[in-house]
Amino acid sequence: IQGFCRDEQQNLGKGRIAGTIDYDELVAGNGIVLLQERAELYDIEAALGDTVEVDYETESGQIQTKTYTVMGIVDDYSYSGFSKCFTLPEQLMNEATGIDCTGTISVITDMEKFDIVEAALNQLIDGNSDLVMETIKESITYYSGLQQLSFGVLLIVAVIVVCFSLINLVNTTITNFLSRRQEIGMLQAVGLSKKQLIKMLCYEG
Predict the structure, then answer these.
(1) Which one of 36, 113, 156, 182 has the largest count of C-beta atoms within 10 Å of its C-beta?
(2) Contact between residue 71 and residue 30 where contact means Cβ atoms under 8 Å apart
(3) How far apart are alpha carbons 25 and 33 in whole angstroms?
């Protein structure tokens, strides 16, 4: 299960099959939305009006069970994170757990205002140890490092494969040459000239 905020309601509604995905209606009716495509992967079936029990771990560590009514069904909903089968307003999740369940907040600004916005956000974060900020520059640096690391590993593997291939080629060539020395000697003994030998080896590759 995952929560969604008011800003995500429009995207959620694009795949609506039945029922409602209105944030306020779901809050008022203690409703939950079935994400059908993902639910089918786990053989989970639910229809409008069905009830769903969800276990939450509260801030004190206790397990609390809440019952919700399926008020909407959505075919597909793209979001970051692991696959979930249900979604409901984040307000209901916050009320059930007693904590703010918001995982990520994205802040988009003009590059001219970047430093001002970053400074303001840093002031907010400094007062709360539970908050962490990651800028787009840091993300680019991080993922670029991962990409370079992956490329380096692949390059090392490729070099090792090439080295083994060359060793195998040299070994095969030497083995073939040694195994044919006696045969070549016999051919030369019965009159095979050096020119004919070279020609024969060229034809054989």
Answers:
(1) 36
(2) no
(3) 12
